[in-house]
Amino acid sequence: MNRISRMLSAMFTIALLFLFTVNASAQKISLKDLTVEHLVNPFSIDNPKPRFSWKIISTAKNTKQSNYEIRLGTSPKIDKVLWKTAVNNDQSVLVAYDGPQLSSKTKYYWQVRVKDNHGNTSAWSPVQHFQTGLKPEDWKAKWIAVEGKDTSLASPLFRKEFNLKKEVRSATAYITAKGLYEASINGGRVGDAYFAPGWTSYKNHIQYQVYELKNTLKKGVNVIGVSLGDGWYKGRIGFGSQKEFYGNTRALLLQLDVEYTDGSKETVVSDNSWKTSYGAIRSSNIYDGDTYDARLEQNGWNNINFKENTNWKPVQELANGPEKLVGMSGPQVSKHEEFKALKIFKTPLGETVVDFGQNLVGWVMLKVKGAAGTKITISHAEVLTKEGNFYTTNLRTAKQQNNYILKGETEQVFEPHFSFQGFRYVKIDGYPGELKLENLTAVAVYSDMKTSGKFSTSNPLLNQLQHNISWGRKEILLMYLQIVRKGTNVWAGRVMHRHLPQQRPTIWMLLAFLPNG
């Protein structure tokens, strides 16, 4: 009996070892960082043959891919395969689609699995997706602008109220502008991107962004609201203080495609049925900052139940220009780290200065309450003079100031809409009452990018150097590499060489927004 027990125990152990070995073999290779055109699950792919990339994770040394399989379909389960390929090679970067012609405005789902040189096969990757962009004939929207000449420094507001008669299954918005835009649906901000649609050579091409809005829209009355800023299109750019370099009229282009649960469809577009007015943003400029007068706020203008007065005028439709509309080709710019104010002090000249302890690009959120008409000015600087005073000579003609005028009703939190600053220190003028540390928060704003690794040592100085390098990369490096790929590296290189020593973070941010092509 003992002999039989020992035999059964040995067989059981062998079976467990076999199962463990098979399972370990299956887990020796897996996939991560799947992208289409370098983007994760993008929504506006224009390339008719989009390119797939992935990375291999392996527990074995000297591992490389020997084979890959890709399958693609139009449903999340990929139960109906539109295209499938299997190739014996080690390519895992920018593998081009080679199946039937893809339709525009369509979401596709894909997976990949690979074999390695040790004979291991990965499981199919998690299902990824991408959405194709619009073809020129898909655009039904019209460019719209304020009536007459666009001469006001204030940011125009655009508004459209519309009625959805049925329950919504899906809703996709395609938005772009000549200038910068911030869009909202029923009073809520659309997306978390800033400085959209980004700086391009506007006369040649303009990027558009895509947003899924199913959970934002509702059956019944809805409202779209959009505000525009000068940006690089109409505002001051370059070292010669050029204005209106690309055009003199800010304009909006918006198309909302809605599909109801019964399969029927409806499209809401920017056209001459929209209305326009002005609000609290009295001026906005990349170099000079924002001026915001809270007394001129039109509360609820971008929401339902708002009553338009005589200040709301019909828009004018503009003819299409020669520019090509293209999908977003890089990571968006958004808010990231926040920094609390570390110290408030008086300089030898009597200036009230706040130190955030970190040189960054972004802006300051200011909390304040005071009498109506009170004007607060926030100036920005990267360093102090050797005497300890506020230093802005390196900014040349750029003001780098945000101005806020209070409405006197309640406590408000201000931040700019269409400008950014490079700074560690800010100078505050006109603040009512006692300025406290908790009244100020610095927000870092830069392109979304994933941290791939970290580095630290026992040497504090070396760690600080690495910290500075990391922040430099956050503010420019990846976007500069994109610029190089787009062919504007000569201009970027000259700016870096001539001006970087004097204007580090400021120039970094300027380069980050150089035109793509």
Overview of the molecule:
This protein has 517 residues and is mainly beta. It is built from five helices and 32 strands. It has helices spanning 2-26, 231-234, 460-486, 489-499, 504-512; strands spanning 29-36, 51-58, 65-73, 81-87, 95-96, 107-116, 128-131, 143-145, 156-164, 168-178, 180-185, 188-189, 205-212, 220-229, 251-260, 265-269, 275-278, 281-285, 289-293, 313-314, 316-318, 324-327, 333-340, 343-346, 352-368, 375-381, 383-384, 390-391, 401-405, 412-414, 421-429, 440-447. The strands form seven sheets. Strands 18, 19, 23, 24, 25, 26, 29, 30, 31 and 32 form a ten-stranded mixed β-sheet that branches. A hairpin with a 5-residue loop joins strand 24 (343-346) and strand 25 (352-368). Helix 3 runs parallel beside helix 5. The relative contact order is 0.11. Mean pLDDT is 87; it is low at 18-26 and 477-517.
List keywords for this structure.
mainly beta, 517 residues, disordered C terminus, globular
Summarize the structure.
The protein has helices spanning 2-26, 231-234, 460-486, 489-499, 504-512; strands spanning 29-36, 51-58, 65-73, 81-87, 95-96, 107-116, 128-131, 143-145, 156-164, 168-178, 180-185, 188-189, 205-212, 220-229, 251-260, 265-269, 275-278, 281-285, 289-293, 313-314, 316-318, 324-327, 333-340, 343-346, 352-368, 375-381, 383-384, 390-391, 401-405, 412-414, 421-429, 440-447. The chain is mainly β.
* Contiguous uncertain segments of 5+ residues: 18-26, 477-517
Strand portion: 35-45%
Secondary structure: number of strands:
32
Identify the overall geometry: globular
